[in-house]
C-alpha cells in the first residue's frame, strides 16, 4: 500500500525545473529563475512534502535549494550517480526531464536519503570564491605548461596572461580572507582546523564549505562521505581488493595535497605513512590511509572543539 506521504522530485536544467509529485503522479515545470523558483516554492509548500530531492547539477540547483531551504522545506541534494543507478534498478532506460523528475521522486519515496546541513548565504559566498580559486589555479597551471613549450612569438602574450591570472588569484584570496574575518564562528573553526600541521587555509575553507557535516558524523561516516573509506568488492567466492570510490571529489583533491604535506611535516602522519610503506603497502594506498586518518581526526577535533595535539589518535 502506497504511503500517503508526499515526495517531490525536481530535475534541474539551466532553463527550467521539472517537478514530479508522488503519490499523486502530478507534474509541472517552472523557469529556473527567481520568479519560477518562488512559484515552485509556493506550490510545494502547500503540499507539506516529506522529502524533496534534486540532483547536484554543477550549481544550477543552488537557487531552488536556497529558496526551498529558506522556507524550511526538507530538501536533499543527491549525487547524480545514485539517481542513475536507482533508475537502472527500476528499469527506467528512457530519459526525459519529466522521467528524471519522476525517478527522483521515487528515489525520495523508496530510499529516503538523510537530510544534511545546507549551506547558508555566507557559506555559499565562500564556496563560490573557492570554486573560482580552483579555476584560476587550473588556468595558471595550463598557461605555465604552455609557456614551456610555446614559440617565442606567443610567449609574451602567455606571460601577460599568467601575470593577470596571478593578480586575479591574489584578489580572490583577499576576498576569501575578508569573508572569513566577517564571520567570527568561521574564524574560530578555521583556527581549530589549521592547528593540525599540514592543514592550511585552503583545506580548512574547503571543509567548511563543501563538507558542512564535518564534526557531526562518526569517523566512518565522514570518511565514506569524502570517499576515502575502502569498500569491499566481494561476491560469492570472489574476494576483490577493497577500493575507495565516490564521495566528494573536490574535498578529496584538496585533502590529497594536504596529506602529501602532512607526511613530510607532521610526525604522527609521517610515522604512520612510513609504517604502512614498510609493511609493503603501495604509495597511493598508504597516502589514502593518511587522508582517511586526517579527516577522521579533524572530524573529532570539531566535534570535541579541541585543537590539534601531537598525541591525537583517530577514534
Structure explained in plain terms:
It is a single chain. This protein is of the alpha/beta class and 315 residues long. Helix content is 59%, strand content 10%. It has three domains: 7-110, Nucleotidyltransferase, domain 5 (2-Layer Sandwich); 120-182; 185-315, no CATH class. Helix 2 (62-70) links the parallel strand 4 (51-55) and strand 5 (75-78). The protein is globular and about 60 Å long.
Features:
two-stranded antiparallel ribbon; alpha/beta; 315 residues; globular; Nucleotidyltransferase, domain 5
Short description:
The chain is of the alpha/beta class. The protein has helices at residues 34-47, 62-70, 80-90, 97-110, 121-149, 152-181, 184-193, 201-210, 219-226, 249-265, 267-278, 283-304; strands at 7-12, 16-22, 26-31, 51-55, 75-78, 234-235, 238-239. The protein contains 12 helices and 7 strands.
Amino acid at each position: 500500500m502506497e504511503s500517503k506521504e508526499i515526495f517531490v522530485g525536481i530535475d534541474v536544467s539551466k532553463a527550467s525545473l521539472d517537478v514530479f509529485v508522488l503519490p499523486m503522479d502530478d507534474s509541472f515545470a517552472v523557469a529556473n529563475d527567481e520568479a519560477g523558483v518562488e512559484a515552485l516554492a509556493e506550490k510545494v509548500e502547500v503540499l507539506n512534502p516529506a522529502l524533496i530531492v534534486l540532483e547536484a547539477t554543477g550549481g544550477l540547483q543552488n537557487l531552488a535549494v536556497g529558496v526551498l531551504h529558506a522556507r524550511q522545506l526538507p530538501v536533499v541534494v543527491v549525487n547524480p550517480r545514485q539517481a542513475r543507478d536507482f533508475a537502472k534498478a527500476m528499469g527506467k532506460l528512457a530519459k526525459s526531464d519529466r522521467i528524471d523528475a519522476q525517478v527522483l521522486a521515487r528515489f525520495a519515496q523508496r530510499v529516503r536519503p538523510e537530510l544534511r546541513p545546507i549551506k547558508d548565504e555566507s557559506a555559499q559566498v565562500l564556496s563560490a570564491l573557492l570554486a573560482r580559486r580552483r579555476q584560476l589555479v587550473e588556468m595558471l597551471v595550463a598557461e605555465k605548461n604552455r609557456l614551456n613549450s610555446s614559440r617565442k612569438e606567443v610567449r609574451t602574450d602567455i606571460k601577460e596572461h599568467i601575470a593577470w591570472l596571478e593578480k586575479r588569484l591574489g584578489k580572490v584570496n583577499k576576498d576569501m580572507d575578508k569573508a572569513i574575518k566577517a564571520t567570527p564562528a568561521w574564524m574560530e573553526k578555521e583556527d581549530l582546523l589549521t592547528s593540525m600541521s599540514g592543514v592550511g587555509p585552503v583545506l580548512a575553507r574547503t571543509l567548511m564549505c563543501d563538507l558542512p557535516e564535518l564534526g557531526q558524523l562518526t569517523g566512518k561516516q565522514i570518511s565514506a562521505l569524502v570517499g576515502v573509506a575502502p569498500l569491499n568488492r566481494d561476491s560469492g567466492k570472489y574476494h576483490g581488493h577493497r577500493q575507495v570510490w565516490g564521495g566528494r571529489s573536490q574535498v578529496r583533491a584538496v585533502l590529497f595535497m594536504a596529506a602529501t604535506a602532512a607526511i613530510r611535516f607532521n610526525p604522527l602522519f609521517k610515522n604512520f605513512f612510513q609504517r604502512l610503506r614498510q609493511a609493503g603497502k603501495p604509495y597511493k594506498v598508504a597516502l589514502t590511509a593518511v587522508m582517511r586518518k586526517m579527516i577522521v581526526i579533524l572530524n573529532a577535533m570539531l566535534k570535541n572543539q579541541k585543537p590539534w595535539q601531537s598525541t591525537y589518535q583517530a577514534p
